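COMPLEX REQUEST
Ligand: 2-deoxy-2-amino glucitol-6-phosphate
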Amino acid sequence: MCGIVAVIGSRQAAPLLLEGLKQLEYRGYDSSGLATIDTTSNQIPSRLICKRAKGKLLNLRNLVDTSGSPGRLGIGHTRWATHGRPDEKNAHPQIDSAGNIAVVQNGIIENHVLLRRSLEAEGVEFASETDTEVIPHLISKELKLLKQVGRKSSGAMLLEAVRRVSLKLNGAYAIAVIWNEAPDALVVARRKAPLLIGLGEGEFLCASDTPALAGFTRTILPMQDGEVALLTPLGIELYDQHGDRQKRSPSVLRDSEQIVNKRNFRHFMLKEIYEQPETASLWIERHLPEGLPSESPVALPFDASFYKGVEKIEILACGTSRHAAMVGAYLLEQFSGIPTSVFYASEFRYAAPPLSPHTLTIGVSQSGETADTLAALSMEAKRRDSLGDPDYASRQLGITNRPESSISRQVTNIIDIGAGIEVGVAATKTFLGQLLAFYGLAINFAAKRKSRSDEEIKKLIEEIRTVPKHLTLMLETHNELSEELSHQFSDTQDVIFLGRGINYPIALEGALKLKEVSYIHAEGYPAGEMKHGPIALLDHKVAVISIANQGIVFDKVLSNVQEAKAREARLIGVAPETIETEIFDSLMPLPVVSELISPLLSLIPMQLLSYHIAANRGLDIDQPRNLAKTVTVE
Ligand code: AGP
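STATUS: Structure written out below.
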């Protein structure tokens, strides 16, 4: 999704902006741009310089290198097209008709059509198809009015103009604005889209996400919903939407929130797949220390009241996070005995089920910024509040990898999966982290509710402790195996993933991973559902990847696989290494573990196979076409 960087200070802005934008590349983009205020010629007013380029950031860098963009104040942007094609004129910054005001925006201005029409009726000519362009035109209008009164400094006028305009904008957005008549003022604002202010020495850098601040500062001030800030070389003035001054202390970033480095791996995705044994070890170290009481065997940051009286659980999430939620729902129902439903957050917003009391609402989002998930959580909070549900606030939980993100400001309880920044657009290690969070939650619920005996709980915990070792061994064998297998997929156009029970969501995740990075059409089905329709697709050109782990549905899956075999599909089994069957054309072996923990391991072949198929096709694995890491629009 779009990325914003803005800087004011004593150094040249353009190199800092380009470096910051580079760190935000992982969010996904199709064009980029920057604007600076050039004060070198002592010309009054100063000159606004704007450069934009379609495609990779390198194109913008070359443009800036050849034509220059001097100035110590600037704003930059990577654009992920929503309104208008990804070309130069629609790239940001967007500017007003006089070319004096430049704006970058991340999000969507939902009422832009109405605003545009009324501006056009006043004679304003638009140069782009973007929703963002209304903003510089509106700011220009407000500045004209403020100038007539004329008692404020140019920086204060720009701040007031942006505040007034932000009240007219509907939607979720973060913006950064500069004006050639205010060469010492950077104004930023946010509503429902992230924006952080980084405090450097004599300079400030604002960004959509923490990696852009790497090497600049560790001291940050996350802006809150509806806030507007004026940054000058002298300091920060922060205001709420009504114009009341806000005072808050900055916080300090952890190392893991900043470091974005591929080490020796070809792609971030592969690096992140390989980081999973560490993700699991760290999680075990933090949450499964020895000696915890039997009624609370997993260390989670909640007291007993959090678990008490929960009769139902609803989980809201999108994409991979939703697949983790589905495994979570299986555990919460089958292990802890609590009825649990999983919803697409985007659907829940417009078709929520009737409210029922004593319900725990869980939002799952690795980024903590997914607009659909945040909006669904907020809608549910309002619904419950309006019905006077007394314990609703304590019955909200967010599971995220970014504890400093918006979800943490929105819900009362948070499980930080602590996987470290994930750069590859395709979620891998954060999926494992989300799964582990659900195992922890299900174990504690089971212990409190006595839905499982102490022995059963102990056994599951002991098995989870073996996961890092299994993951390490699997990575060794499966990387090579997946690479070899991937060559069979050079002409493949359709792949079907099958799984049952707790591994059905892993089949869905396998299909999503393959689609995302290799652009091969893939679908995940519960294996028993094949015969009800999808089997019509099968022939020798279709590959079927079937997860068949030992457990209650093992024989059933094998029978379902036979049905595919009879239709000449190419069969790949993700099955125990000890399996005695000739049914699969290829086997991706799983260690012999209980069905209950098998999703923590069966995800490895799904991720590695997708990765290698995409690598063979020479695709842009870390930034697949059309995708964004953080989906901050509806
Ligand atoms: C995962 O590979 C995808 N990039 C995508 O489905 C993602 O899981 C989804 O957009 C939700 O993101 P979140 O976890 O940050 O909320």
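REMARKS: The pocket of 2-deoxy-2-amino glucitol-6-phosphate is lined by residues 318-321, 365-367, 370, 373, 425-427, 516, 631 (CB under 6 Å). The radius of gyration is 26 Å.
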